[in-house]
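Readers of this paper often ask what the protein records in our data store actually look like. Such a record has a labelled line for the sequence and another for the backbone structure tokens. The tokens are whole numbers drawn from a learned vocabulary of local backbone shapes. We quote a single record here, exactly as it is kept in our systems:
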Amino acid sequence: MVEKRNMMPLNFFKKEAYTGSSEGMRYRIAQITEEEGEEKVFFLEAVVYPEPYCYELTPEEKKIRRRFPFKEESLEEIRIWLNEAIGHQS
């Protein structure tokens, strides 16, 4: 189960992706940037995928993705979504 105490602060994602695992599933949270016109828009993307491979070696068809706004409130939404995707109730 992904617990609140295991989540990194929002500023962490400006420089690094965060990975973890729970009961045979792995997850990754990272900042992604898209360009809308001349502006950059930032999101947090959460991805769940099965073990045993790392993110880079897991086939895309085995990954489940969801995007969230890049804001503090999204961290709790991500935690809840990860637990649901992994099969836990928060």
User: Anything to note?
Assistant: Helices lie at 72-86. Residues 4-86 form one domain.
